[in-house]
Design brief:
Length: 625
């Protein structure tokens, strides 16, 4: 049964367009037929993304006289204040089309754009599906723009967001995949489907004939929510009784906290789903556990109403099979525990690191891991030494120890105020002078440009009292810990001067933090080589920011990366926890400089990996000596 109510297709559509996301100009509202809009997008799909091709549209009409004083969304999308004056939710006069976006995430099945096209045809809906600039065959990303029978003007933006959520849920169910919840903002910008580089194929753009979506009519067909069920017993439904609570607490310890503006809703809903579906806990018990053992780590903590909503939505998250976390221990867990029982303390340490990383990646039940390691310690001839070894491994691997320092809030704000490197003339010019294509760096999210106009910088973004914008340190690279989490930044000077070429945040250490390309981030976050890669685990470990960028852009964008790149930004960056994040059996190319410091880095790397990885430096075996 088709869940959507449809009607005649309007002859034209109104959109508001900006020349570029960071241009200091007002948006221009234009009217065109849907066929004309689709043809424009087809031309964009064959174009290489350049500044004059950044026509960033909003599928609505925006009132240009809206000012920042009227707007309650200061800071939205990291746009400059001059653009916020003209594009914000309160400035929207009417919404003229329904736009939804699918972003592929690691571990999710690939949903190609062909599936979206077939779904629209099956539903009889007109629409314009198109691939986004960052789409790849392995990680398809696409948007669907669906015409509406009439513009939405009622109680903007609040009523529209409510309507959008309901219609998006229906569309996601028909597509059988997740849709980005952040697109509910009526002032959301959608870049056209340009190619990121000349080496990537043209982006696909299709126009599907059909009828327009009647949003109000569709909402009227959605049944009213059923009355809340009678309170369930607080005892878990799982067959293991009270032990499931211990398992749930251990599981929550490994779950990522929900961070505002970082897909926090999905993160929290997935966490709730692991309890209500994976462990089959009742809603009341799940709420108690989330409130006590999870919510305090979220930024900001969820309200009681929102927590209940996460639990309710968790029931519908089919990615977590019901009872999946109550099953027998993982076979790999059984094998590794046997190795730990028969090995020495070094073996126990390695096994413990591997198991906790598997648990953090969601591949093992953390309760099983904790219980089995406890059994190993209890049966060890030297129980005290075994417990200290396991505790040390957990300390090394635990992605939330220590917690992010308070100053990282300022670092995230600084990163949010940065722009793409290819949108800053001076930074682009500097990168080209070093043989790097700014677009290659930008689309891989390797570095950002700190605008000269950024006036309010945190105290640590300075050198001897002078802000980075004044010293020329405007090429900013995020640095990561062993869990693939951003923990700090590095700033590189892009202009002439007598200051150091690169700077860490003033007064803060960078030990145990490295630079990671996209493949490196996925490997560190997964606790092993990403499952979507068809190649064996391979890493290039390089020295310095520019060498890191050079290696990180070597693989063309239209090819799957065959290796991960780890950059060592300074002394102390390589640490035991970083070494533990490299999977066993990986082939390592050590590309440090052939000087005293580079030789020391290579020796340290070799000493930490030589027993379980294959290391080469300059084509010969790399050893600690």
């Amino acid at each position: 049964m088709n869940a959507f109510v449809t009607g005649p297709l309007p002859p034209s559509v109104e959109i508001t367009t900006w020349k570029g996301k960071y241009e200091a100009t007002e948006g221009i509202t234009t009217t065109s037929t849907w066929a004309e809009l689709a043809e424009t997008y087809r031309q964009d799909g064959a174009s290489v993304r350049a500044k004059d091709k950044l026509r960033a549209p909003v599928f609505c009409v925006v009132r240009p006289e809206c000012t920042s004083a009227d707007c309650d969304q200061a800071g939205q999308d990291g746009n400059p204040e001059v653009l916020r004056r003209h594009r914000c939710d309160r400035a929207v006069v009417r919404v003229t089309a329904f736009a939804a976006e699918h972003d592929h995430h690691v571990g999710d099945p690939a949903v190609p754009i062909d599936h979206a096209i077939e779904t629209l045809r099956r539903l009889g809906l007109a629409g314009m599906p198109y691939e986004t600039p960052s789409s790849t065959p392995e990680g398809p990303r696409w948007r669907v723009v669906v015409p509406m029978t009439e513009p939405w003007t009622s109680e903007l933006p609040g009523a529209w967001k409510t309507a959008y959520r309901a219609v998006q849920a229906l569309l996601a169910a028909e597509l059988g995949c997740t849709l980005d919840e952040k697109t509910l903002n009526p002032s959301r910008i959608f870049y056209p489907p340009t190619r990121p580089t000349k080496d990537t194929p043209s982006r696909r753009v299709e126009w599907i004939e059909g009828e327009a979506l009647d949003v109000a009519g569709t909402l009227a067909t959605i049944p009213a929510p059923a009355p809340p069920p009678a309170p369930e017993p607080t005892v878990p439904r799982g067959s293991q009784g009270g032990n499931v609570i211990d398992r749930a607490i251990a599981l929550l310890r490994t779950c990522e906290p929900a961070i505002q503006k970082s897909n926090g809703s999905t993160t929290a809903t997935l966490t709730a789903a692991k309890l209500v579906r994976g462990l089959e806990l009742d809603d009341g018990t799940t709420l108690d556990l989330l409130r006590t053992h999870y919510n305090p780590r979220c930024v900001p903590p969820w309200s009681e109403k929102e927590l209940r909503r996460r639990v309710s939505e968790g029931h519908r998250m089919d990615a977590i099979p019901i009872g999946s976390l109550l099953r027998e221990p993982h076979p790999l867990l059984v094998r590794l525990i046997e190795e730990a029982r028969t090995g020495d303390d070094a073996t126990l340490f390695d096994v413990s690191c591997k198991l906790w990383r598997q648990a953090y990646a969601g591949k093992m039940d953390p309760g099983d891991v904790a219980r089995e390691l406890e059994g190993v310690c209890a049966g060890s001839p030297d129980e005290g030494s075994a417990r200290r070894t396991v505790a040390k491994a957990l300390e090394v691997v635990d992605r939330r120890e220590p917690e992010p320092p308070e100053w990282m809030d300022d670092a995230e704000e600084l990163l949010g105020s940065c722009v793409r490197v290819d949108e800053d003339w001076q930074v682009s010019t500097y990168l080209r002078s070093r043989g790097l294509d700014p677009i290659d760096v930008a689309v891989r999210d390797l570095a950002l440009a700190l605008p000269k106009s950024c006036e309010s910088l945190p105290p640590w973004a300075r050198f001897r009292g002078r802000p980075w914008t004044e010293t020329g340190h405007r090429l900013v690279l995020p640095v990561f810990d062993a869990s693939g989490t951003v923990r700090s930044v590095r700033a590189w000077r892009v202009s002439d001067g007598d200051t150091p070429k690169r700077l860490p945040p003033s007064g803060h250490k960078a030990g145990g933090l490295v630079l990671l390309d996209s493949m490196g981030r996925e490997a560190f976050r997964a606790g092993g080589w990403p499952s979507f890669s068809s190649s064996p685990p391979r890493f290039a470990i390089v020295e310095g920011e520019l060498d890191f960028l050079t290696w990180a852009v070597r693989t063309p964008l239209n090819q799957s990366p065959a290796h991960a790149v780890v950059g060592i930004p300074g002394a102390g960056s390589w640490a035991p926890e970083i070494a533990a994040a490299i999977p066993d059996g990986a082939a390592i190319a050590v590309r440090t400089h052939h000087d005293l410091a580079g030789n020391d880095y290579a020796a340290t790397i070799a000493a930490s990996l030589q027993t379980r990885c294959q290391l080469l430096r300059g084509g010969v075996a790399c050893t600690p000596a």
